[in-house]
Fold:
Amino acid sequence: MSLKRYEGKIAGSYDLEETIGKGHFAVVKLARHVYSGEKVAVKVIDKTKLDDVSKAHLFQEVGCMKLVQHPNVVRLYEVIDTPSKLYLIMELGDGGDMYDFISRHDHGLEEETARRYFRQIVHAINYCHQLHVVHRDLKLENVVIFEKLGIVKLTDFGFSNKFIPGRKLETSCGSLAYSAPEILLGDSYDAPAAPPTFIHSIKVLT
Structure:
């Protein structure tokens, strides 16, 4: 839906606060619902800077996030569309991302904690694959910590896509340091089978 945006607010419903993340065409801001006071994360996407490929990724991201409803995937509450911006209203974690969380522990995480979080990530990925959704940008920075709840959630589906079992994907995307070898080589790849190196990053940092 197209809604009027007021200065410092989105449709008069959310007060925008500080920026908590940045990307090429988007920023993530902390926001608060003006009536309930609930804090949320708002991904603000500048549509005027998007080319056709980026617009396609944006539609894929929204579609995949609407489809994937799982306790270990960040929930998309609402999508607000304006002529120049798209706002994705999402639930907010209280512990930052996994990279920062692990970095705050000088001696790494306790084995039981690392095992519990690792299990939750695998459950989220497996659920996505059951729905024929592949994330394609799995990394520590895209895992959000909900510290009070003792859980982690997968976020940022900007490179996600639907796949057909048995058919390989061609698009080389994601974060270079975490990409599978076949993606780095520019080969076609079996989406669910391409192993991200972020798995090894968790093992090293913990």
